[in-house]
Structures are given as structure tokens and as C-alpha cells.
User: What shape does this take?
Amino acid sequence: MKIAICDDDEWIRRHLESLIEKMLHVKADLYAAGEDLLSSEIDYDILFLDICLEKSESGCKIDGMETAKRLRQKSDSLIIFITAMPDYVYEAYDVEAFHYLLKPIDEEKLCEVLKRAASKVQEKESSPPLLIRTQGKFIQVLPEDIFYGENDGRKINLHTKNGVFSYYEKMEVL
Assistant: This one.
């Protein structure tokens, strides 16, 4: 799991880093400015992002909300805002933020949010759905939903948690 923290406050970055490492046993990458995060080639699974970011070393200033908007153009990372600014909570919906936590950080709430985010990442990483074509129709079936398949002459019965799909013609998995 790839996690990044982008906050201009070094103490916050280090504190979050230690909490994440303690909770998930994952080392997070640290960024002090949105520009630095945006220039990274890494597609992170989870991003902790402050909304109010100071000027970077290069002198540029992109706040956390603008950083999130730009990230959304190239990534579907889970964004968790960590900020002292409650005023931006509604804008967070525009960038499909996973959660919005206020500083000072409540460690219990952070742990809850982090566990949910990690679970969501694991769901995304599960096997992609099978696209099955039969009788001119396409049906998506998740591999983990399949109990078993049986061949009954020319008929194929695929037993899933959503029911049994029977096919009387050649079944093509695309």
C-alpha cells in the first residue's frame, strides 16, 4: 500500500507518519508542498492532504484543494484531508475526498478512518470482474463471487452468490 502525507508543517508530517506506521506497518512518503506531490510519478493509494499549504521551496503556492483537483485528473487515490479549516468541507465533495479530519488530530478517529481506507484499497485491488458474453448479452461476474461452475453436456451452469447463470452456447470470457 502506497501512502503519502502532504502538509507544510513538519511536526504534523512526522506525527502522521509515525501513527500510520504504527497502525498499518507502512512507511508513508512525505511532502511539504502540493507541487512536490504533483511532480511525483507514484500513484498513491491513500493521500493525507492539508488544505492550507505555505509556499514551497520553489516559491510556488498551490493549496491542498487545488492539489486535490489536479490529482483527480490523473489518479483515483483516496484523499483524506487533514486541516484546521472546517470551511472547506463541502469543497472536499467536489474532489471526491474519502474523509475530512480536523486538526488537532484525534488518534482514535484517524485509526478508524485509516482502517476503512485500507479496506477500500484492498477492495479495489481485488480481482477485476469477468465480462462474460452469452446469448448476445454481457454479464459482469466478480471472481470472488463464483462458487463453482459445472458442465452439463452443452449447458454451462455458473454458480455465484448472485444466482446461477446457465448458458446453452459457447461462453466467452473477455
Summary: Helices lie at 10-24, 34-39, 64-72, 89-94, 107-124. The longest helix spans residues 107-124. The mean pLDDT is 86.
